[in-house]
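Hey, I'm writing a tutorial for new members on how sequence and structure tokens pair up, and I'd like a real worked example in the thread rather than a made-up one. If someone can provide the structure for the chain below, I'll link this post from the tutorial.
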Amino acid sequence: MQDTPFRRSLRLLTTRRFGTFWFASLLANIGTWAQQVAQPWLMLSLGASPFLLGLDTFASGAPVLLLTLVGGALADRADRRRIITVFQSIQMLCPVLLVVLILTGTVQPWVVILMSLIVGITDALSMPSFQSIVPSIVEREQIPSGIALNTTQFNLSRILGPAIAGVLMTSVGMAGAFAVSAASYLPFILVALWVLPRYTPSADSTRWPSRQQLVQGVQEVWHQAPLRGALLTVFTTSVLCAPLITFCPVLIKAAFQGDAARFSLTVGAFGVGGLLGATALLAIDPTRDRRPLSSWAAVTYGVIVVLAALNRWAWALPALFVLAGIVMTTSNASANALLQATAPVRIRGQTVSLFMLAMRGGLALGGLLTGLTVSALGVRQALLLNGLLAIGAQLANGRAWRRAELQSTSSL
């Protein structure tokens, strides 16, 4: 039987460290997505405006803008197992508190936003360590396959999490979804303590980097055309296209008079698309250039946002979200694989922190800005504007990315 890239990728799941890490991450992300579905619906049920919904997204992502470089430095200089364990434990307390407040009837929108801020801070400090795990437990040539497999479990959780949340929200109430989120942290924390490799710092990395060293690390990444193009692609997608997910509950409730079940179905459809996109990436040769995949998928994402804004049929929305999941996963996972496979080992943590800055920071800015335009123009008009801007920006960035690479190649 022919040994294809797809079969070689799947074999990673049979290894003890990667396989256990993959399964624990799946459970953790199922809980995360259950909360991601329940939280905006909870906000709307408490009478929150679209602006507050965007502010909640901004609160969870804004700390990335300030702290992600610190998180990258931590990933390069400290025990990543300890970093993940400490900050994930803090995060786990947030849904626990929300369960208590929901059951006692004392939850308020500002409390939800505050919990999002705490999660955002801990994410900013720990996610570079989390994102650096795959390259540390697989061979360098397996990094694209490892990232694609990790993306597969993330999108599988995007299907299972909303489905579980939908069942719990319509049966036992909002508290059930947040309880599942809290419980899902435990397996991942245990795996971080047991499976993930210890970090042994070198003599040069024991000192905390100065501000100048952090800036120099950013400049080193930014001056490399492949890395810069990948980061700009992810940032543009996060700012202009990701609000399609953030404001999905507003679109469903205001434009289609839908309920929580329809919302969870639509978010689950996005996860189906993400799973399809991640699975397709497993079949691609790890040595293939990921730039065209990332760039053109990002342009297509903008087109889908435009179509979702113009769509008048409730049955068509899940289909559009499947397509959105495919292209978003293809674009971001390809950019992430390019970044981690290309970046020098000594600044891999900083490179990953910039990827998180582009993705999560862009999502925060996009949520806040789109929240303002939704309040001023309406949800359809705001998404239409975002989609058109995304198409133009991604086409321009794709041309610049390709031109910079050609110039870099010709100078060698």
